[in-house]
Amino acid sequence: MNVTNSPIPSRHFPKDASPSLSEFKSLCSRNTQSKQYPLASSIQSNIPIYTLPPFSSLTPSQISALQDEWHHILLSGPGVFVTKATLPRPLITQTNTIYTSIIDAERATAKGDHFSSAGNNSRIWNSFSKHALADPASFVAYYSSPWLSAISAAWLGPAYRITAQVNLVCPGGAAQVGHCDYHLGFQTAEATAAYPKVTQIATQLLTLQGAVAHSDMPLASGPTRFLRFSQAFEAGYVVYRMPEFQEFFQQNFVSVPLEMGDGVWFNPALFHAAGENTTSDVERCANLLQVSSAFGRTMESVDAVPLVEKCWGKLVEMFKGRDGVQRQKPW
Ligand SMILES: [Fe+2]
Question: What fold is seen in the domain 27-319?
Fold first, then answer.
């Protein structure tokens, strides 16, 4: 069989030619146009910032218009946006007491992880489940936020699933290397290369990456660094480890300060990295969210039945409307 004259192009990114660094630089040097996102309150360092009004004050069409902007940002815009005061500070404070008790209980066996060494980093894997089992009331209040739902549905549509991990970085905590995330970002370069081009591109549609700030995060504390528009580079998962692409990330990333309760949301294919905590007194803490499409596979397994059993009473209360929680579906 003669395969040399086939008119069908390879389904893979070519192994013998590096993707164009100059195209990457050009793409990631674009500026975010404020007129393109009129519902944003401001654009800071090319990142649209949204000040959220009370959810119940908005009509479905107003919510949908916000969702249109967010979807556009994630798909073909800068790839990241911030929502201010997404969750109320008292709820974050209550949740932090739960996180602290979980971290203390797990500290005896802590060994650090692939993000940082033990001593300057605490992490709660599957904080979603542990939070629910430890304090159903604050868990239900947290994850029933209509804004979490609206933001997730904007990218994924309905029937998504959430997994979460808490990351606490103490003063002196090191920066991460620029990277892309779940799913393909967690694979080796060789494993990634085995996936067809279109599959690599499509995986970014299966996850929304987010973080809720559980502390104030001044720039010196190292809030997440982002390389704007990089999610739109089709070969991103192939190239993000290459030194020349890493160098461009290091020279051109942006980040914005966050306040407790703010949310930051980004496409998992966007080049990003946690920053260095150069403060002497800020413990930077975030709840990292991966929201997974109904058509995807979640990053962690959540055994939902015990969580439902634990939270059932609170859920019934909410269903009966005793606490006045807004239940309008944002899609
Ligand atoms: Fe990451």
Answer: Jelly Rolls (2.60.120)
Residue 330: Cβ-neighbour burial (10 angstroms; 0-12, 13-18, 19+): buried
Domain residue spans in the chain? 27-319
Model confidence band, residue 118 (pLDDT cutoffs 50, 70, 90) = very low
Ion ligand 1, residue ranges at CB < 5 A: 181
Q: Could you tell me the distance, in angstroms and rounded to a whole number, from the CA of residue 22 to the centre of ligand 1?
A: 24
* C-alpha of residue 115 to centroid of ligand 1, in Å: 9
**Strand 225-226 with 207-213, pairing:** unpaired
How much distance in Å is there from the Cα of 224 to the middle of ligand 1? 9
Alpha carbon distance 216, 62 (integer Å): 29
Output the CA 309–ligand 1 centroid distance in Å.
32
Give the pLDDT mean for 121-140: 96
Tokens of 126: 């599957």
- Give the percent of the chain with pLDDT over 90: 85
CA of 180 relative to ligand 1 center, distance in Å: 6
Cis peptide preceding 272, ω within 30 of 0: no
Distance 26 CA to ligand 1 centre (A): 23
Distance 248 CA to ligand 1 centre (A): 17
Distances (CA, A) of 38 to 73, 86, 95, 148, 153: 12, 19, 33, 21, 20
Q: Are strands 47-51 and 80-84 parallel, antiparallel or unpaired?
A: parallel
Q: How close is the Cα of 268 to the center of ligand 1, in Å?
A: 8
Q: Is 199 helix (H, G, I), strand (E, B) or coil?
A: helix
Helix, strand or coil, per DSSP, at residue 307: helix
Give, as one character, the DSSP assignment of residue 139.
H
Q: Are 198 and 50 in contact (CB under 8 A)?
A: no
| Element holding 261 (H helix, E strand) | none
